[in-house]
Amino acid sequence: MPTPWDESLLGQALGAIARDYGYARYAVMTIPSADDARAELKLIFSNWEPAFQKGFEKLGLGRNTIVIRALKAGPTPFAWDADLLYGTEEPGEPNPAARFLATNEIRGGVYVPVHGMTAFAGALAFFGDRTDLSEAEATQLQFAGFGAFGVLAACRLEENRRSNPLTGRERDCLKLAMLGKTSSEIGIILSLSEYTVSQYLASATRKVNASNRTHAVAIAAQMGYLS
To answer: 31 and 135 in one domain?
Structure first.
């Protein structure tokens, strides 16, 4: 009987893929739905050391608009070069982001976008001493990206169900919204006012950090909250 996947095995597999392609670090991240200066990639799984993660977040590397726009544009992997992406403050003097990456022996990397059939979007990222990527390698990493998100979702499904932040009424409203029902129709089915239904949906949307009710349905379903 095959050994079931868990996060430890997933980490080993991603670590092996990173090494095979000449990278040192990997990360599974979510792509923000919002499009503003505060939008940033959110880390959900990686082999990053605490100090590296702290530096990455402190310097706002997850808020790079060039990266986020490239990932939102489509499924094509985005290979990047630290010098070109972060530049310098003054001739010969690297800016804090470039200095941070250089200190951690990172010259470049690749972000592999994973767009699900729902509103969910994420990216599998690799960082290291490499800046190029062939078309064949990009295709191979796309398959790795979809596999990584699928395994991680399966590993965390039961945990997500146990830590479900939604109330029973919020789940009921989202399930009916998933079927295409309007707030008025949901109210009739659940014997609630349209205003109350809207409040439940708004609360659920905030709890799952979604931009609207459609996005909330997608995230809640992806996380196993509606099962």
So the answer is: yes
- Do residues 108 and 186 share a domain? no
Q: Which two tokens stand for residue 227?
A: 């099962």
What angle do the packed helices 213-223 and 135-162 form, to 10 degrees? 80
Q: Are residues 17 and 114 in the same domain?
A: yes
The 10s digit of each residue's pLDDT in 117-172 is: 455 688 999 999 999 999 999 999 999 999 998 888 778 777 777 778 899 999 99
The amino acid occupying position 167 is T
H/E stretch holding 111: strand 108-115
The structure's pTM equals: 0.73
Domain membership flag for residue 2: no
Range of the domain at 99: 7-161
Among 50, 49, 29, CA closest to 40: 29
- Strand-pair category, 78-81 with 108-115: antiparallel
Q: How many domains, in total, are found in the chain? A: 2
> Is there a single domain that holds both residue 148 and residue 111?
yes
β-bridge partners, 125:
27, 111
Cα separation, 183 vs 86, whole angstroms: 46
* 214 in any annotated domain: yes
Reported as a single tens digit per residue, the pLDDT across 61-102 is 999 999 999 999 888 999 999 988 887 656 667 689 999 999
Taking residue 201's Cβ as centre, other Cβ atoms within 10 Å add up to 22
CA torsion sign, 112 to 129 to 66 to 96? positive
Verify that 128 and 195 share a domain, yes or no.
Answer: no
Are residues 108 and 68 part of one domain?
Answer: yes
